[in-house]
Structures are given as structure tokens and as C-alpha cells.
Amino acid sequence: MTTSHPPYSPDPDLLKDLNLALPLRKLTAYIDQLDVSADFKAVLCDLAKVTWSVGSTVVAIGRKILSVALEIVTTFPGTMFGVVVASIVTLIVGTLPLVGPLLASFVGPILLATGLTMGALSDFRSSAWSTKVTALQEQLVAVKA
């Protein structure tokens, strides 16, 4: 059985799916464990509290964005690995006597771009990335319309 909705009324199932995100308590606990500055943690906590009102429904869009970001980080470890390896190599190059700091300032961005690209390519070969991002885009476009 299908139900039709006016063009200005979003699908209730879509709104329900957008509200399926990690609870604020779990997001806050995860944010507290991050090794970043307190200011950045405060910004992330503020983002987690952002909501939209769509008709009579409140959508926790901030929690959904952070939940998808956390899922992407855990789903695509190759990208993270590439960035970490490139950062470590840049650090090692920077410790070379005399020319290390100068060399690291030139080679570091190239290594980071290469590590990010190689890691991302290994992760993007899986269809999980495009499936998740496309699903989120379709949900947000349907709410916007």
C-alpha cells in the first residue's frame, strides 16, 4: 500500500530515517575521547545539537551528520592509514639535520596529498562509500524539496 504526499510534504519514513542517528550521549562520549582541542570538541558538540523543523517533525540533522562522519571514518580506514603514514614520514624527514625542516616543508604537503589519495583510492574501490553518500544526499534533497 502506498501513500501519496503533497509535493511540499516530506515522506514520514524519510524523516524517521534521518532521525536514526547515534544518540547525543554516545556522540558526546565519542567526542570527549578525541585527541583534539577543547574548542574543536565544543564545536562538534554544538553541531550534534543542531536540528531542523520540517513540518511538525524535528530532525536531528547535526547528529546525523556526525554519525555519518564517524561511520565513514570507521568504514574507510585506508584513507586514515595513508594520512597517518604520510604524517609520520614527514615528521621523520623534518628531523634530518640542517635541511630537514626545509625539506619537510616542501615534501610534507606532497606526502600528505599522496597518502590521502592512495588511501582514498583503496577505500573508494569499495562501493560502500558511494552508497552511503548517495543515500544521505537523497534524504537531504527530499527534505529540502
Sheet-strand content, in percent, reads under 5%
Average pLDDT over all residues:
80
Number of helices: 7
Class based on secondary structure composition and strand pairing: mainly alpha
- Supply Rg: 20 Å
Strand order of the largest sheet: 1-2
The largest sheet is: 2 strands, antiparallel
Helix content percent band: over 70%
The N- to C-terminal Cα distance equals 23 Å
Shape: elongated
Q: Note the run of SSEs as H and E.
A: HHHEEHHHH
Q: How many extended strands?
A: 2
Which helices and strands occur, and which strands form pairs?
Layout: H1 12-18, H2 24-33, H3 38-48, E1 52-54, E2 57-59, H4 61-75, H5 77-94, H6 100-124, H7 128-144
Antiparallel strand pairs: 1-2
Helix pairs in contact: 1-7, 2-3, 3-4, 5-6
Describe this structure in words.
- The structure is a single chain.
- 71% of the residues lie in helices and 4% in strands.
- The chain contains seven helices and two strands.
- The chain has helices spanning 12-18, 24-33, 38-48, 61-75, 77-94, 100-124, 128-144, and strands at 52-54, 57-59.
- The protein has a two-stranded antiparallel sheet with strand order 1-2.
- β1 (52-54) and β2 (57-59) form a beta hairpin.
- α1 (12-18) crosses α7 (128-144), α2 runs antiparallel to α3 (38-48) and α5 (77-94) packs antiparallel against α6.
- The model has no long low-confidence stretch (mean pLDDT 80).
